[in-house]
């Protein structure tokens, strides 16, 4: 059951693009009424730089906390892909806020029910790829460990990550996980890699791995 939807708006309360200062407002529906439960002032960095895009995506995720649905008028493709990779369902829409909130809620709940039916009937072949996904062509990768383990029973973080880390052919790796693997700090130190970790929800962490 979808409980919250976040929307990016300008100072007039209109849905706006992610290339200007605005507000992330998180809405929750009580009976037939949408209520704002959180509002965060937000200013984006220059979307031309990959480092800024990574920071913007991380800041959005931290602002959303446990909310996993985000609506804006326009969203840069890299931010869209990175949010999707960490489990945030992202919508590009414009118009009446209440109508959009109702529409997105309906479609998200329909999709959630479809997924349940597919999984229950064992017709799903929704195996997540066990290699990080490259974003662009400059050695930047993303991997959603939470989804991967949800749909690949028995697979461990070591099985997925150690070969990739040992190969060491990346510039940056962003992980979305339910906890920080206990083995990872020692392994990264051995490989002369560094990492930073941010908690974005109750069981949600983003880990960013770089070369020292």
Account of the protein in words:
- The protein folds into two domains: 111 residues, Dinitrogenase iron-molybdenum cofactor biosynthesis domain (Nucleotidyltransferase, domain 5, 2-Layer Sandwich); 79 residues, 2-Layer Sandwich (Translation Initiation Factor IF3), CATH 3.30.110.
- Helices cover 34% and strands 30% of the residues.
- It contains six helices and ten strands; from the N terminus they run βββαβαβαββααβαββ.
- Helix 1 crosses helix 2.
Highlighted features:
Nucleotidyltransferase, domain 5, Translation Initiation Factor IF3
Please sum up the structure shown.
This protein folds into 2 domains: 111 residues, Nucleotidyltransferase, domain 5 (2-Layer Sandwich); 79 residues, Translation Initiation Factor IF3 (2-Layer Sandwich), CATH 3.30.110. It is built from 6 helices and 10 strands; from the N terminus they run E-E-E-H-E-H-E-H-E-E-H-H-E-H-E-E.
Chain-wise SSE layout:
Blueprint: E1 4-9, E2 22-30, E3 33-42, H1 50-64, E4 69-72, H2 77-85, E5 89-92, H3 97-120, E6 133-134, E7 140-144, H4 145-151, H5 157-167, E8 172-177, H6 184-190, E9 193-201, E10 204-211
Helix pairs in contact: 1-2
């Amino acid at each position: 059951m979808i409980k919250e939807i976040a929307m990016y708006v300008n100072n007039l309360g209109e849905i706006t693009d992610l290339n200007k200062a605005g507000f992330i407002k998180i809405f929750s529906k009580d009976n037939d009424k949408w209520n704002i439960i959180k509002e965060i002032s937000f200013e984006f960095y220059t979307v031309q730089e990959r480092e800024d895009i990574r920071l913007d995506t991380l800041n959005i995720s931290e602002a959303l906390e446990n909310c996993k649905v985000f609506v804006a008028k326009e969203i840069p493709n890299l931010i869209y892909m990175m949010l999707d990779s960490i489990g945030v369902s992202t919508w590009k829409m414009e118009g009446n806020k209440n109508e959009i909130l109702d529409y997105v809620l309906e479609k998200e709940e329909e999709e959630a029910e479809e997924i349940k039916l597919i999984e229950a009937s064992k017709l799903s072949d929704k195996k997540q790829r066990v290699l990080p996904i490259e974003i662009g062509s400059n050695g930047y990768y993303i991997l959603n460990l939470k989804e991967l383990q949800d749909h690949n029973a028995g697979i461990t973080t070591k099985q997925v990550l150690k070969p990739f880390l040992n190969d060491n052919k990346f510039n940056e790796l962003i992980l979305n996980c339910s906890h920080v693997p206990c083995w990872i700090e020692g392994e990264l130190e051995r490989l002369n890699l560094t990492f930073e970790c941010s908690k974005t929800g109750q069981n949600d962490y983003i880990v960013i791995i770089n070369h020292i």
